[in-house]
Write a structure and sequence with these properties.
By secondary structure, this protein is mostly helical. The chain contains 14 helices and no strands.
Length: 244
């Protein structure tokens, strides 16, 4: 459909396809459309906003024959904001500082256990299935936010762009199963739900947690930020034990 619309004026499309603004606009439009669809389904876990937006962008790129490199040349403006967004997680930590301080021990325990389990389990499974060193190294930081995960992956000898895809897949899957899993386990404490979401599914899980409850979202942001810092420390220590 898209190629047929642009066929009469190929020179216009050639200009637009090389303009970074076109791909930045595509990203924003895909997000807005996905958000409207998510709202229409009352924010159902299965109708994940990030997954929908990703699907729409992939369809658009396939339909127009655009390479990822060309798309990223424009989308990198949004990618750049991942860093500041991660730093901004200090805001919910500050706003909930008293509650965080009161539950410091459980938070510390869950962070340590969650971080170690996330790393060891995925690397062990990858090794058992015969994955190469590059794949295992790319998988190891899957539960932290993309900027941190890409840096850790590169240091371990993994593929940063593969790690980005795995990080997004982890976040989307975690966000989709968060509510059903918490109901199945009869966990209704917003702080516990938020910690689980942020620990296992980083930013995408945190976004889902905010849709559930503001407190859950705040704790998810805290877990996401602290897990990123903790994983950066723990992963190099575990590296020789994991054979990475």
């Amino acid at each position: 459909m898209i190629p047929s619309l642009i066929a009469p004026h190929p020179e216009v499309w050639v200009y637009l396809s090389t303009s970074p603004l076109s791909w930045l606009t595509l990203t924003l439009v895909a997000f807005i459309v996905a958000d409207r669809i998510s709202i229409a389904f009352n924010r159902h876990p299965a109708v994940n906003l990030v997954a929908l937006a990703t699907f729409l962008i992939i369809v658009a790129l396939k339909a127009t024959g655009t390479s990822y490199e060309t798309y990223f040349a424009g989308a990198q403006f949004i990618h750049f904001l991942l860093g500041p967004a991660t730093v901004a997680l200090a805001v919910p930590l500050y706003r909930n500082f008293e509650r965080v301080r009161a539950t410091a021990l459980p938070i510390a325990a869950s962070l340590c256990v969650g971080s170690v389990v996330a790393i060891v389990s995925v690397v062990a499974i990858a090794k058992l299935l015969g994955a190469s060193h590059e794949i295992a190294a790319s998988l190891a930081p899957k539960s932290v936010t993309s900027p941190i995960a890409m840096g850790l992956s590169e240091r371990l000898g993994g593929a940063p762009f593969l790690t980005t895809a795995l990080v997004m897949a982890t976040g989307i899957f975690g966000a989709m199963i968060l509510s059903p899993l918490m109901k199945l386990m009869r966990i209704d404490d917003p702080a516990a739900i938020g910690m689980a979401a942020g620990l296992a599914s980083h930013g995408v899980g945190a976004a889902r947690a905010f849709h559930i409850d503001s407190t859950a979202g705040a704790f998810a942001g805290i877990a996401m930020g602290l897990n990123g810092a903790l994983t950066s420390i723990i992963l190099p220590i575990l590296q020789p034990w994991l054979g990475l």
